[in-house]
Every structure is written in C-alpha cells, then in structure tokens.
Write a structure and sequence with these properties.
By secondary structure, this protein is an alpha/beta fold. It contains 14 helices and eight strands. The termini are far apart.
Length: about 300
C-alpha cells in the first residue's frame, strides 16, 4: 500500500529515480538505495522522514565519484514497521544499522548524521571506528542532557509524547509528518508542492506511525532516563575521537540552533571542519540539498588530497 501510494504521486519518480533494494537486518526488512561507485557515504535520516529527504544530495555525490547508501530506518519509509514499542530501542536501531553496514561490507565509510540519525550513526561509528573514514553532523545531538530547551517544555513537545496524547496526535492524525516537517523548512510552498505527499504516503495509518511518537521518548530528560548511559558514552567517545568531521547547520534552525548545538559539537570535536551554515531550518536538506552535497564533496576531496584517513 505504501509503494502504491508513492506511485500515485505526480512526478514522484522524477524526484526519486533510485532503485529500491532490501536487506534483512536483525529479522526486519530494511529498504535502502545504493548508487554510484567509490568510497561509500552513508546518509542517515531521523524522525519522521526517510531516504527521500536526501533526494537532492544523492546525485551530486554520485556524480563526484562516490558510492551513496541511504537506508530507511526500521519503522520509517519503505522499511518494515514493527508494531511494538520494544523494537525501537536506541541500541536496537544502532544494531540494525550495523547489520546493514556489515552485509554490504562497507569500508572507508563517511557517516552523515541528521536528527535521530545522529545518535544512531554516531553510535555505530564509535563502536566500529576501523570501518569509518569520516563523519558529518547536521542538526543533531550526542549528549545526555536534552538536545534543546524545546524538548523540556510541557507544551507542545512533552505533551505530544504523553501516553495518550502522543498516539492520538502523532499516531492517529500523523501530526509530525503532516505538519512537523512542513513547519521546519524555509521554502514551505515548494515543500508543500514537491515533497509533503511523499512523507505522508509512507506513514498511511496509526500502526505504521508508531516510531514518530516512540522515538522522542528516548530523549533523556533527566538522570534516570533509559538512554542516559548510552548518550553519556557517546559524548565521551566523540570527545576522544580523531575521525575527520564536518559540521553543517541550518542557519534558520529554531530547535537545534547553531549557536548552541553546532558550537557544542565544535567544542566536543575541536578538529572538526565548520560549522558551515546553509539555508534551512531543522530539515535543512529540503532547502539546501545540493549545497550540502557540495560541502561534503569538498571536505572529502580535501581528505583525498591529504591522503587522509
């Protein structure tokens, strides 16, 4: 039904012309695209998006001689969507990503992290540094304190993910995919015309939207949070990491504002390149996909010239 819904969107294949591939990871069916040849780049999305978010990033990277892999996290996009909350632990998602990388035998990998793709991708990278060549971070976080002051507010964030309200708003009414992404881009008219339907189509009913309200519950809001230890470990590992790192941020991002979060990554990893500012709110790929691809290409070309990593 999801695929049929996408097929019915006018012009969808022009925007998303990539061959669908599937892998079995930890018992789940994961969808991904795998385009081009050369050193691999792994593009990771977050909540409530899928690989479609990177549609304007993929072609320029391929054209510049890179192999680009874009998985849909289990629970999103064209991947299988488990209907039980226990399937969606942070460590479980890291394990799913690790399973895909191992099946594809990816080496010299550049991991590009956005939103929940940050804790997931960085968790993989810190556990498998020998396979990783470089990192790119965009509008994400990697520490145990709440990612933003916004996430500590009773309204709208915390009430949205309360036991009854979350399933009602995000599950039954698809608020995050229907309104959340739209409100977090700069070019809203263009987004509504060209992209909105593709985000809604892959989450057609309440059962498939489980992760949109479950994932945010893993954001640590206090010292007893279930992900507290994992995020503390992640911050400590990144502080020790010498992996070449690129920081890209949306200058209009109102939740993960650059002055706080991009700069915190810079303090955590002072060797990082950037932060480089582009047009964009939280979902900056929607506004600046080609520019993001250009920044990644320039960064990796620089490593090539140095004989790096």
């Amino acid at each position: 039904m999801t695929v049929n819904a996408l097929e019915s969107i006018e012009g969808f294949h022009d925007k998303w012309p990539f061959l669908a591939r599937y892998a079995r990871v930890n018992g789940w069916r994961m969808h991904y695209v795998d385009e081009g040849a050369g050193d691999p780049i792994l593009l990771l999305h977050g909540n409530p998006t899928w690989g479609f978010l990177y549609r304007d990033v993929i072609p320029p990277l391929v054209k510049c001689g890179r192999r680009v892999i874009v998985p849909d996290m289990i629970g999103f996009g064209l991947s299988e969507k488990p209907a039980r909350e226990q399937a969606h632990t942070l460590d479980g998602h890291i394990a799913n990503l690790t399973g895909l990388v191992r099946q594809l035998d990816l080496q010299r990998l550049t991991v590009v992290c956005h939103d929940w793709g940050g804790p997931t991708g960085l968790g993989f990278a810190m556990s498998n540094p020998a396979q990783v060549r470089a990192l790119t971070v965009m509008s994400t976080w990697a520490w145990p304190t709440p990612p933003a002051e916004f996430h500590t507010r009773q309204f709208p964030w915390r009430i949205m993910h309360a036991p009854l309200v979350g399933p009602y708003l995000l599950g039954r009414h698809n608020v995050l995919a229907r309104r959340g992404v739209y409100l977090s881009v700069v070019g809203r008219d263009k987004f509504r015309r060209e992209a909105q339907a593709a985000y809604e189509a892959v989450l057609p009913d309440a059962e498939t939207r489980l992760l949109t309200w479950v994932w945010p519950r893993w954001i640590p809001l206090n010292d007893t949070a279930r992900a507290q230890a994992r995020f503390a470990w992640l911050e400590a590992e990144l502080a020790k990491s010498k992996l070449p790192t690129l920081i890209i941020w949306g200058r209009e991002d109102e939740v993960f504002d650059a002055a706080t979060f991009a700069e915190r990554f810079k303090r955590l990893m002072p060797h990082a390149d950037g932060p480089h500012m582009v047009t964009g709110r939280h979902f900056l790929q929607e506004d600046s996909g080609p520019e993001i691809a250009s920044l990644i290409t320039t960064f990796l070309d620089g490593l090539d010239k140095k004989g790096g990593a």
